[in-house]
Backbone:
């Protein structure tokens, strides 16, 4: 009986020793795994965390600087946009103005919808006459050639103008009649030189649309004239007294 008890006690002691050794093994494993000093992995994590925080700060600073730059760039862009708007406005105003090619006396001037030439009355007619002079026939022949070559697809307006001196010695009743007859003479000459009848329009302003204002002989010489307008046919109508045409010959 006693022997059995001792054997049981011995076996219990062995079990406790084995359990103790197992416990020591787990403790040793835990010691090896975690260690008693600082954990290298944790140190690395802490270092990376610190670096990450620093990078965040640097990125935030860069974002702030970038936003400041964008604000300044936005101000500059607003200025550029305003300048572009002003430039577009100037271009629109320039496009709205009649385009013209300056011409010397007796030469064609070109505009958006028409071309015109003003010929002094002294070149075309003798004083008080409605018959073309030799120089007048030559000039009208040149104009007819221009019309056939350059303006064949346009309507041709012929406008007579006189000075303001009353008719006294000639057969004409007044300057209205003289201006009208001179325009008609030119119309017939153009027709005889191949300009189609359906293209020709006669008009007369008499003394009432002077080129220059003045009572001296030089002014009157400028006002005695015949004007020719070659008008594009997509223009609905052309009033020779319209401001666009008056301005085209104003000095």
Residues:
């Amino acid at each position: 009986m006693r022997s059995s008890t001792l054997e049981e006690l011995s076996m219990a002691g062995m079990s406790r020793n084995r359990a103790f050794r197992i416990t020591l093994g787990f403790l040793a494993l835990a010691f090896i795994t975690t260690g008693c000093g600082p954990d290298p992995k944790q140190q690395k994590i802490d270092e990376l965390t610190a670096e990450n925080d620093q990078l965040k700060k640097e990125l935030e600073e860069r974002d702030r600087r970038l936003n400041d730059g964008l604000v300044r760039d936005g101000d500059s862009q607003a200025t550029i946009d305003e300048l572009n708007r002003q430039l577009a406005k100037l271009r629109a105003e320039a496009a709205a103005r009649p385009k013209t090619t300056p011409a010397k006396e007796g030469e064609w001037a070109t505009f958006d919808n028409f071309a015109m030439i003003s010929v002094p009355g002294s070149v075309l007619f003798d004083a008080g006459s409605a018959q073309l002079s030799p120089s007048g026939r030559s000039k009208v022949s040149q104009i007819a050639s221009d019309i056939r070559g350059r303006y064949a697809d346009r309507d041709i307006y012929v406008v007579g103008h006189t000075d303001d001196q009353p008719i006294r010695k000639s057969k004409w009743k007044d300057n209205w009649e003289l201006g009208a007859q001179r325009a008609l003479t030119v119309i017939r000459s153009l027709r005889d030189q191949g300009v189609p009848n359906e293209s020709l329009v006669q008009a007369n302003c008499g003394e009432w649309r002077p080129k220059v204002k003045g009572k001296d002989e030089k002014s009157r010489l400028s006002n005695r004239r015949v004007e020719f307008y070659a008008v594009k046919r997509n223009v609905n109508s052309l009033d020779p007294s319209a401001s666009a045409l008056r301005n085209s010959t104003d000095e």
